[in-house]
Amino acid sequence: MQHTKIKSYVYPAYGVASLGKVAVEVTLQLYLFDFYTRILGLEPVLAGLAFGIAIFWDAVSDLMVSAGLFAARSRGVRYTTTLWVGALLLAVTTVLLFSPTETGSKWYLFFHLLIAYVLVNTGMTLLDLPQSSLSAELSRKADERNKLLASRMGFGILGLAIGSALPGIYLATLQGEPTDAVVADSRSVSAWWLAILVILTGSLTAWFLRARETETDTAEHSKMPTLAEVWDLFKDRAFVDLLIAGVIAAVGRTVNAALALMYYRFVLELSEAQVTQFIFPIFTLSIVFSIPLWIRLSKSYGKRLPAYVAIGGLGLMGIIAYPILPPGLLWPPLLVSTIGGVLCGAVFLVDSLITDLIDSDEAATGKRKESLYFAVWKSGLKVARAIAFVTIGLGLQMMGLDLSLDVVSDSMQWGIVLLFGVLVGICFIVAGWFIRRADVSEPENSKQN
């Protein structure tokens, strides 16, 4: 089916929902574990267990939402409608997640974290899966989809910058060394701002994409995939290679995010203000400015090669650089963050490869199954994150790391370095190798404008 050329406003309209969503996501990745363990005093093993259960539910809910989307679409419910409902749920539950009763017991904290995080992940799924599915439906042209995905990633990177910097900005307005109570307030205030941002950006995407979604909609919707069709995904070697790559990289990203503040605090002896006001922003800006580079390279060399080189190079850099960065100096981690940001800019090419697989499957079967593809893809990544969080909680508990201290032993520092630098680096190198293996055919219209 041929579609008219995408109007210019559709690109930012599609991507802007990621601004609020990713801002929440990165806040959870960077600050939530620290908030419940160091600030509120929940044991790392209990925090890791709550994280693992909530994220495992998130993986299961992807499949449930995917099935629900097929049923809802057959009854005329738009992706944009589901996306907006997800934005509302995500906004409300983000505030709830960062608002526990400070005098609660450890079991109260555990169940508050577990229930609130389950609801947050459900809202995230209701927002994220329709947005991912729209990338394959709004256009059948590879170049247009690349621009849609680049827009999504660009707004997502801005969200990453906002989510990572908000607590630090709040603390920067205060005088003196912040107490645990002040740090807790910074997280709570940030959650309210994030909730407003999620509602605003989700509403913009839902409103402005409505017309394009109506235009590209077909009279007959695909039926819900059968178990045989689900199994067929795992017979597709290219998809399996990309899925394995995504799962391994998800383990690396989870370990990296959970230990980032610990690495900069205990190993490099940098303050939270230095990390949130300098290192994180430089990293995110590097990603933003690198996106046009990766789009150009993908046109010249295809998508697989740039993605493989970038992700493998990111892993190699982490293995070499993080163990040798000198403590107390800001400019070396800033340099590493700049290079790392440029390499991370190629990640959106993997999502674009999946949309190419969806096109190939449609040519062979006559059915559009974008919801199924992205549900299986995202579920795999989330199961990997759940396992990684449980492992991190158990590992920190066994190490006996006291997060309330300002200084830890040399052996514990090296343990953090090996996890944050070497293990994460190996994950990215192996993930890059599987991306290189994935034999994804370039669509015939990849050069069309």
How many helix segments?
16
CATH architectural category = Up-down Bundle
Distance between the termini: 16 Å
Q: Choose one word for the global shape.
A: globular
The structural domain count equals 1
- Count of DSSP E strands? 0
> Which class do the helix and strand fractions yield?
mainly alpha
- Using the coordinates above, name the CATH class: Mainly Alpha
CATH topology: the name is Growth Hormone, Chain: A
Amount of beta strand: under 5%
Overall mean pLDDT stands at 83
* Low-pLDDT sequence parts: 445-449
Which H/E pattern describes the elements?
HHHHHHHHHHHHHHHH
Q: Report helical residue fraction.
A: over 70%
CATH superfamily: MFS general substrate transporter like domains
Radius of gyration: 21 Å
- What's the story with the biggest beta sheet? none
Give your account of this protein's structure:
- There is one protein chain.
- The chain has 449 residues and is mostly helical.
- It has one domain (13-437): Growth Hormone, Chain: A (Up-down Bundle).
- The chain has 16 helices and no strands.
- The chain has helices at 10-15, 17-39, 44-74, 79-97, 106-137, 142-172, 180-208, 210-216, 227-233, 237-267, 272-301, 304-321, 331-344, 348-365, 370-399, 410-437.
Give me the secondary-structure topology.
Layout: H1 10-15, H2 17-39, H3 44-74, H4 79-97, H5 106-137, H6 142-172, H7 180-208, H8 210-216, H9 227-233, H10 237-267, H11 272-301, H12 304-321, H13 331-344, H14 348-365, H15 370-399, H16 410-437
Helix pairs in contact: 2-5, 2-6, 2-7, 2-10, 3-5, 3-15, 4-5, 4-7, 5-15, 6-7, 6-11, 6-14, 10-15, 10-16, 11-13, 12-13, 12-16
